[in-house]
Amino acid sequence: MAQIDIVDVGHTYTAGAEQERWALKPMRLTLEAARTYALVGPSGCGKTTLLNILSGLVKPAQGRLLFDGSDVTALPTKARNIAQVFQFPVIYHSMTVYENLAFPLRCRRWDKARIEARVHQVAEALGLDHRLRQPARRLTADDKQLISLGRGLVRDDVAAVLMDEPLTVIDPQLKLSLRRRIREITEQFRPTVVYVTHDQYEAMSFAQEVLVMKDGRVIQQGTPEQLFEAPASTYVGYFIGSPAMNFLTVERVGGQVTLAGRPLAMAWDVPDAPQIQVGVRPEYVKIVGEPAANVFPTRVRGVRDHGPQRVLEVELAGQLIKVKTPREDGVPATGQILVELPRAKVLPYVDGHLATTPRAADPE
Amino acid sequence: MTLDATDLSLTVDGVDHLKDVTASFQPGRLHTVIGRTLAGKSTLLRVLAGLQRVDSGSLTRHGADFLTTPVWRRDTAMVYQQFINYPHLTVFDNVAFPLKRAGVARDEIRRRVQESLARVGLTEFRRRRPSQLSGGQQQRVALARALVRGAGILLLDEPFANLDYKLREQLREEFKTLFSDQGDAVVIYTTTEPAEAMMLGDVVLVMHEGRIIQTGPPGEVYDRPATTTVARIINDPPMNIFTGRIAGGRIAVDDLQVTRVPAHLADLPDGTYQFGLRAPDIALASAGLQAEVTFVEISGSETFVHLALSGTGFVVQIDGVHDIALGDRVSMRLRPERLFAFDHSGALVRSPSSGPGSPEGR
Amino acid sequence: MNRKQLTKSLAVPVAVLAITVAGCSGSSGPEQKPDKPALFKPGSEISYAKYGKDYPTTKVKDVPGPCSYESISRKDYSGQTLKIISHAVPVIGEPTQLHARQFEEITGAKVEVVNVPFGELHQKILTPLQAGQPAYDVMFYPSLWIGDMAPYLVPVPKEYLDAPGMKDVTKAYLGVATWNGKVVQYPVDGDRHYLKIRTDVLADRKHQAAYLAATGKQLRAPQTWAEYQEIASFFGGKDVDGDGKPNFGSAEVTKRDDLVFSAFISRAAPYVKHPDVTGGVFFDVTTMQPLINTPGFVRALEDMVKAKSTWPAGGANFGLGDEIFSFGGGQALMSYSWDDAFIQAQQTDSRIRNRVAAAPLPGSAEVYNRNTRTWDKIQNQAPYFTWGWTSAVAKTARNQKMAFDYLCFFSNEANTALDLTIGRFGVNPYRNAHFDPGFWQAQGWSKDVATAYVNTLSGMEKSTNRVFDLRVPGVNEYMSSLANGVAAALAGQQTPQQALDAVAKEWTEITDRVGKDRVQEAYRNVVALEDNS
Amino acid sequence: MSRLYATFKYTLISVWAGFVVGPFMWAVLTSFKDANGVQGGATYLPWVQYEPTLTGWQNIFGGAGGVDVVRPFLNSAVITLVASIISLALGALAAYGLSRYRFKIGFIANSDIIFFFVSQRIMPPVVLVVPFFFLLQWANLLDTIPGLVIVTVALLLPIAVWVMVDFFNGIPRQIDEMAMLDGCGPFGAFVRAILPNSVPGLTVAAMFCAVFGWNDFFFAFRLTFTEIQTLPQAVVALNSSIPPWWTLSAAALFGMSPLILLAVWVERYLSKGSLPGVIR
Amino acid sequence: MDGLRRHKSMFLLPGLLTLLLIIVFPLLFTIRVSFSGWNVSNPEMDFVGGANYVKVLQDSRFWAANLRLVLLAGGTVLIQYLIGFGLALLVWRNVRARRLWRVLFLVPMMTTPVVMAAVWQMIFHESLGPVNDMLAKLGIAPVHWFTEAGPALAALMTVEIWQWTPFMFLLMLAGLLSLPKEPFLAAAIDGAGAWRTFWKVTFPLMAPVSVSAIIIRLIEASKLSDTVYVLTSGGPGSATESPGYYLYLRGLKEQQTGYAGSLSLTYLVLMVITLTIVAALLARAFKVPRQSSKAKEQ
After folding, report:
1. What keywords does the record list, in alphabetical order (chain A) (predicted)?
2. Partner B contacted by E2 (CB < 8 A)
3. Which of B353, C339, D118, D195 stands 20 to 30 A from C178 (CA)?
4. Cβ-contact E116, D239 below 8 angstroms
C-alpha cells in the first residue's frame, strides 16, 4: 500500500484544447497510504479520467504521478502494481475460485505453498474459503466482485486498490451486504483504496475521505462529516445531503447580516461582498413557538411525508427553504410558523464558496 | 371508471408471481405498490397492461372484462425502470409516437408534444436521440410520452430506481406536479422505497411474494403495519424486529432487560412477542445498552448505525452525517413509547399510535 | 389412406402436371411467314473476320443449295425464338454461338444458346426431355448418346436429307446418325481417333540415329502400342525440339469425368477387335455378357498404366483441352485423340505448324480371340470411330422447320469449310469433300501434312475392322463406370484386372436396370455397323 | 510491442495477404493472355513473357467467341436482390415471432423451430435439386426468374432467421411492449418500433444472403434452360474441354466484382462497430 | 408477451410455411424415390423395397467418401479456425493499414466457389500453372496436384481454406471487437503476459463465438461438392470424392435418382447425428456456459 501523490496532473482528450476545457484540470492531491478514498461526482466530472490515470489506462497530458515517491507516470498498468474492481464483475471464466485468486501470484511466480497459504487467508476474509474448488463463473455477481477484490488483496504489496462503481450491476438487495463486506475486508487488509462512484450514499458510507468532483476539479476533499457540516461550496451543499442544503440570499447592513430585515447571527466572520448567501441544512432548522434571536416567521407552502420525518417547505423572506421535522411532531396546524436558524449551523457563502474556512483542495 | 382485479394468480415454474391479487384501482388517485424486488409488482403492472397473461382471476374496467382486451386497446401508458424509448426516433418523435398512432391531427400533436416537453424541461433537446441524453433526461422523455396521451391508466414501474439519488430526489419532487392534472386516470406506481410510497401515494398497496398483504392510505399503513413483513417493507432502514418477553412490567430480550413496558402496551398479557422499533426511535446515548458498531451507512442526511446487541442486530438512525468507526462500543437507548408489538405469527397487536386496549386489526 | 396410396398421390400429380404442362406449351403452333428477299447473292464470299480477330480471315464461297447463306437469308423468322443447348465454349459451343448469331442476323429469329460443361450435358438435356419439359429446340451432344435421345427426337425431314450437303456425308457418319432406320441426328461433325506425331523430331535424322543406337530399331510413326510406348519413353523429359522446355512422349486424355473412356477404347481396339470374330466388342451381343474384363481390355489398361511415365506433369488428369495444349503447344511429341490437337498445331500462329503428321492409330502384334480364348499373332489395326458431336431437334420444338433450318445453315458447305480450320471449334471432316488435300493446302498446310492427314482419315473410312461407340440407352452410365475403373487403375487404387472386373459387374447391373432387351436391340445396330463394314 | 514481434506480425499478415491475392493476380494476368500465352507454360510478365491481348475481355462483352456476361449479371442481380428481400422479410418476421413469443406445438418448442430453420443448411443441394425440378415444372416456373427466386429463398431463409433471432433477442422487449401500449398492434409494433432499430442485424443478414445468393451455381444451373442464365453459369459455360482460360479469367473477375465491393462495405460496417454486436 | 397468443402465428407462419412448402415436398419425394428404381433409362416411381439401402451399405466408395469428409471438413475447418482466429487477432488492433488488411482478408469469402475453383485449377495445373513453375524455379520437382491422391487432397484443402477462412475471420473479428475491455485490463493488472492473457482471457471469452463459428462452418463444409466438381472431379480415381460430390455423381451425372435418394437420406441422417454430437462435444471442449452464449456478464 502506497501513498499516492498526484502532482499537477491534468488531462484533455482533445489535443490543444485550452485548459478551461480539459476533462481534468491540473490538480495536486495526496492520497495517504492505507486510507480509503471515494471520488464522487456526476457523470462527466472527470472522476473516471482520474481513475484511468491512476490505473495507467490514460497517460495524463501533464503532471506526474508518484506511488510512494517514485514516478509511475510513464509506466504501463502492468508495472504499477495496482488492483482494480470494475463495474462488471471480471473473473477468469475458465478457472475455479482458487485459480482466480491464485492467478496474480502465479503470474508473479510465487511458489506453490506460499500461494496456497495466501489464497486461503484471503478467501477466508472474503467468505469464499468453502467454495474454492467451484468454477468461478457459477458464482453470483456479488461474489464475483469479491473475487476481483481478492485478486488485488492476495498481492501483499499492492500499491492501491481501485474500484470503479463496483455495485452498478449488483442486485439492489445485495448492494448493502456487498458494500458492507467490501468495507470490512478493506478495514482488515488496509490497502489504499480509491473508490469511484456517482452515488453519494455509497461514497460517504464507504470512504474515510470523500473527494467531490465537478467539471474536472476536486471541489472538496474531506471526511463525510466535514462535507455534510461544512460544504465548501453551494454545489457540495446541494450534492451532499437529502434534502439539499438550504441557501438564502441575505443582505449585509453595516457589519451585520440581515434576513427579511432582521439580523441573522452567525458563528463566523462574514466577508465583505456584494452578494452573500447563507446555507443551513434542513435538519438544523428548528420550528419554535416563541420569537427569539435568529427566529424568523415563515409561511408553510408544502408538506412531504417521508415516513419518519416530514419535510416542510416554507417561505422565508420570499425564499423557499426546507425544514425537516420528526413525524411525531405532526403537521403544523396553522400556515404561519416560526423557525430558528441556529447560529452555529448557518454558514456564509460568497460566489458559491464557503467564506469562512480555507477552501480545501481547490487548485489555484 | 375503476380498474378491478379479482383473485389474479400466476404461477411460473412453481413460483407464485401473483397469488390471489384482489385490488380496486380508483380513477384520479395515485396508487403506490411497494414491495421488495421480485415481490410481483412488475408482474402486476404487466398484467394490468395486458403484456402478461394470468392463470386465473379476473380484471374488469368500468365493470367490463379487461383481460381479453389487447394491449393496444387498453388506453394504458407505462414507464419502465430501464430508460425505454424508441432509439431510432428523436425526442420529439418519441413523444409524438402515441399521438400519431391515435390519429391526432398534426397541429394538435405539435402543440401537445411541445407542451409536454416543456413540462419535463426537455424543449431544447427535442431534436436529439435518446442515446444522446443522460439517464435522467431519457426517463423524462419516457415520462413525457406517458403523459402526453392523457391515457386512462398510467403505470410506472419503479421509474426512478435507476437514477442516482439527487436526480431521484428531484424527479420525485416534480412528479406530483407532473401528474396533478391527469384527471380521471388510474395511476399506479411501484417502488421499493418507503419514502416514495409515503410521499407520492394516495393509496399504498404492500406486496410480498405475489400477494397484496396490506392496502390503505400511506399514513395508515405506516402507522399500523399489519404484520412484521409490512413493517419491514414500509420502513427504510427496515424496522428493527426482535423477539422479547413482557414480564413484570419490563421487556426482556433473552436475559437482558431492555426497557420498561410503555403505556400503550401496558395492558398486554405477559408472554413472548415480537417487538418492532424504527431505526430513528433508537438513540445513541451516553449510557444505556452496550452495543458494538458493526457497520455504518450514510443515506442522504442520515447516518444508519448497525449495532450488535448480544447477538441481535439493531439499526439506529441518527440525523446528520457522523464519522463513526466500525467496532466502536456505544450505548443505545430504545424509545419504549414507539414500540410496536406483534404476535408470534407476525400480526400486529399494538402500535404506538393506538391507545391502550384498542385492538389492532383490519 | 394406406402407404401405397400415399406414395401414389405424391407421384401422380407430378407426372400428370408434367404432361399437362408439356402438352399445353407445345400446342401453340409455329407461325410460318412468307419468304423475304435474300441478303446474299449466290456464291458470295463468306468470312468470319468481322466477328473478331480470333477468327481467320479466310474467305470461302457460299455454295448454292437449300442451306446456303442465300437460301436461309430468305426465311423470315422474326418474332420467333430458337432455344439451343450446346457444349461449353469453345468446343462446338463457340460455333453454335457464332452460327446462332449469324442465323439471327439473316433470319430475324431470336436464338438463345446455353453452353454447358461436358460432364453436365447429358443430364441437362435428358432431364427435361424425360420430364416432357419443352426446354430446348436444338441440342448438340456426343453422337453416341443416340440410344438415350432417340425417343425424343424428330427424324430429319426428307427435304433436308436430300440436300447436297447431306448427301455428301460419309456412309459411316450417316450410319452414326441413324437409329432404327431413321436419321434422327443431324451430322455436323465427324470424329475419330488417330495418331498425331511431331515430324520435326520423329523424322529428324539425328534423333533417328540416336534412337537406333539406343534401341536398335528404326524411328518411325509407331505401328503398335508397344512401339508407341518405346518411343514415348525414349524422348520423355528431354528438350528435343530446342525450345528450352522439356518435351514428353505422350499426351492422352485421362481425366475421369472427361473422355478417358475414348482414349482407353482407342488403346484397346487392336487387342479386342479381331477381324474374324463378329458379334460385338463390348458385349457378346447374343448373351449381353460384358467383355470389358476380357484379356484384350486388360492388356490395354496395363499399357495405359505403364504409359504414365511418359506423360507430362499432370498427364494423368488431362482433359481434352490439356491434351490439345500439350501437343498443340509443342510439349508432347505424340498424342492420339480427335482432330482438335492436330488442327491446333496447324493454326497459322502455331509454333509447330507443318511439323506434325497424322497417322492411323497404333495397332498390335497380337489380338485376343474371344471365341478360342487365345491370343492370335496377327498384325492388327482397328480404327475407332469415337462419337463426334452431333445435333438433333427435339419433338417438343415449337418450330421444327426453323430448328432444322438452323442446323442445315450451321452445317452448310461454307460454314463447315471455315469451321474445319478452327481447331477449338471441334468440327472435323465428315463429308467426302473434306477428304481433299487441296482443301487443306489452301489453308496453308504443306502438301505432306495435308496428304497424310487426308489419307489417315479416309483410310479409316475404308477399313473393314472398325470399332464403333457403344450406342445404347444408358451409354453414359456404361462409360462413366468404365471411366471410374480406368481412373482407379491409373491412380493405382486397383490393378487393371480388378478394376475391369468391377466395371463388368457394374455393366451387368446397368444392363439389368435399363432392360436387357432394350440394350440388346440397340447394340445389334452397332454390331451390324461393325460387322457389315 | 517489441520490434521482433512487429516484424513477425507484419510478415504473417503479408504472407496471408499474398495467399489471398495470388489467385486474383493470376486471374488478372491470365485474362490478358491468349492461347499462345497459356500453352507454353506459366508466364508472369506481360510484354516481356507474353503479348497481352484484350480477347478475353472482349469475349465476355459480346465477342462472338465467348459467353455474354451482361445479361447473366443482371439476372443474378435481380434474383439475388429479390430473393434476399423476400428472405429478409419472411426471416425477420419469423425470427421476431420466435424471439418474442413462446410457441408450443406438441413437443415442439421455439428452439426446435429455430433448429428446423437452421438445419435446412445441412441439406446437401443434391437432395433438393431433383424434387425442385419437378416442383418448378409443376408450377410452370422452370427456367424463369420467379422459379429461381423461390429456390433461392429456401437457401437464404435459414440464414436470415439465424442472424435475426439472435439480433432481436438483443433488443429489449420493452420497446415493442411500449409500442403496443402506445397503440400499435403487434405487427405495427414490429414495423414501427423494432424494424427501424434492426438495421445492423438486417445488414448482416443481407450480406450473408447476398453472398450465398449471388454465388449459388448448383440450383441455377439445374433449374434453368436457355432463358435465364446466372453469372456463375456463364462462367462455367467456359469450362470446356478446351478451356479458353483468358475468357474464363475475365468472366470470373467480372463476376466477383460486385461482391468484392460488398467486402469493402462490410469492413466499413465492422469498423464502425455496428457489426460486432450482431454476430455472437 | 404471453398475453398475445393469438397474434404470434402471423409472424412465424409466413416464413415457416414457405420453408415447409419448399422443403417438405423435396424431402418426401426423396424418401419415396429412395424406395424406387428410378434411373436414367427407367424414370419411374416403382417400388423396389429396401434394395437401394442394401446397396448403400455395401457401397464402399460412399463410405470412403464419408470418412474422407471427416478429414476434409474437420481438417479444413480446424485450420480455418486457427488461421481465421490468428488473423483476427493480428488485425484486431494496433496494426497499420488495418482496414486494407481486413477487406483483403474478407474478399475470398465473397467469391463464387465454382468460379474460383476454375481459377485454382489453372493455378495448380501441373504443367501450365504457376505453382509448379515456381516450385521448379526453387528446384523442386513438379507436384502431381491432381494425379496423386495426397497432393490432390492438399490442393482441395488449400482451396477450401482460401475460400472460407474469411468466414471464420469475420466471425472471430466481430467477436473480438465485441469483447469488453475490462478483462484485459484485469489481466494486465494481475501481471499476466501476452501468452497467459490469450489463454486465460481471450480464448475463454471467445469460446461461445468459436463454437458457433465452427459449427456453422462444419455444416457448410459438409456439403463440399462444387469445389471438388470443378477442381478434381473427385480424382485421381475416387481419392478426393466427398459425399456431396458422390451424391451428385450418382444422382445427377449418372441419374440413378432412386439410389441417390437412399444415399442422400443415409447421408442426411449421418450428418444430423454427427453434427449434433460434434456440437455437444465442442461445447464441452470449449467449456461454454450453458445458460448464456454472451461473453459479457449481465
Report:
1. ATP-binding, Nucleotide-binding, Transport
2. yes
3. C339
4. no
Q: Under CATH, to which class is D70-237 assigned?
A: mainly alpha
> Cα(E223)–Cα(D120) distance, rounded to whole angstroms?
12
Distance CA C462, CA C406 (A): 31
Instruction: Give residue C11's pLDDT band: very low, low, confident or very high (50, 70, 90).
Output: very low
Domains of chain C: 26-187+389-427 (3.40.190.10), 194-386+464-532 (3.40.190.10)
Q: What is the DSSP letter of E222?
A: T
Q: Could you tell me the residue ranges of all domains in chain D?
A: 3-60, 70-237
Question: For D102, which residue in chain E has the nearest alpha carbon?
Answer: E2
Residue of B267, B279, B359, B273 lying closest to B313 (CA atoms): B279
Read off the C-alpha cell for C94.
463457340
- The nearest alpha carbon in chain D to C326 belongs to D39
Contact A55 E185 (CB under 8 A): yes
Contact with chain C for residue D66, Cβ under 8 A? yes
φ/ψ of E197, rounded to 5, equals -60, -40
What domains are there in chain A, each with its CATH number? 4-229 (3.40.50.300), 245-354 (2.40.50.140)
ipTM of the complex: 0.81
Mean pLDDT, range A351-358, rounded to an integer? 77
| Contact (CB<8Å) E4/B70 | yes
CB within 8 Å: E1 and B70: no
Cβ atoms within 10 Å of C42's Cβ, excluding its own? 14
Examine residue E14 and say whether the peptide bond preceding it is cis (omega within 30 degrees of 0): no
E touches D (3+ CB pairs < 8 Å)? yes
Q: To the nearest 10°, report the CA torsion of A9, A13, A19, A25.
A: -40
Of B77, B80, B121, which is closest to residue B97 (Cα–Cα)? B77
**Residue D174 to residue B102, Cβ atoms within 8 A:** no
Pick E235's closest partner by Cβ from C256, C315, C513: C256
What is the set of domains in chain B, with CATH numbers?
A: 3-228 (3.40.50.300), 240-350 (2.40.50.140)
pLDDT of E10 above 70: yes
Lowest model confidence (mean pLDDT) among A272-276, A341-345, B106-110, D191-195: A272-276
Q: Indicate the domain borders of chain E.
A: 61-285
Q: Is E61 helix (H, G, I), strand (E, B) or coil?
A: helix
Q: Please tell me whether residue B362 adopts helix, strand or coil conformation.
A: coil
Q: What is the pLDDT of residues E84-108, one digit of tens each?
A: 999 999 888 777 888 888 888 988 9
Q: Give the pLDDT confidence of C445-455 residue by residue, as tens digits.
A: 899 999 999 99
Q: Strand A256-259 relative to strand A262-263: parallel, antiparallel, unpaired?
A: antiparallel
Q: How far apart (Å, rounded) are the C-alpha atoms in residues B353 and E123?
A: 96
Work out the burial of residue B65: count CB atoms within 10 Å of its CB; fewer than 13 is exposed, 13-18 middle, 19 or more buried.
exposed
CB contact at 8 A, C345 and C328: yes
Query: What topology does CATH give the domain E61-285?
Result: MetI-like fold (1.10.3720)
Amino acid at B170: Q
**E154 lies within 8 A of chain D by CB:** no
Which of E126, E127, E247, E259 to mutate to probe the C interface, most C CBs <10 Å? E127
Task: Quickly count: other Cβ atoms within 10 Å of residue A18's Cβ.
Answer: 7
Burial per residue of E71-103, b for 16 or more beta-carbon CB atoms within 10 angstroms, e otherwise:
ebbebbbebbbebbbebbbbbbeebeebeebbb
State the nearest Cα–Cα gap between E140 and chain D, in angstroms. 16
The residues near D10 (Cβ < 8 Å, ≥ 6 apart) are: none
Would you say C425 and D240 are in contact if contact means Cβ atoms under 8 Å apart?
no
Say which residues have a Cβ less than 8 Å from residue C256's Cβ, sequence separation at least 6.
C483, C484, C486, C487, E233, E234, E235, E236, E237
Burial class (CB in 10 A: 0-12, 13-18, 19+), C205: exposed
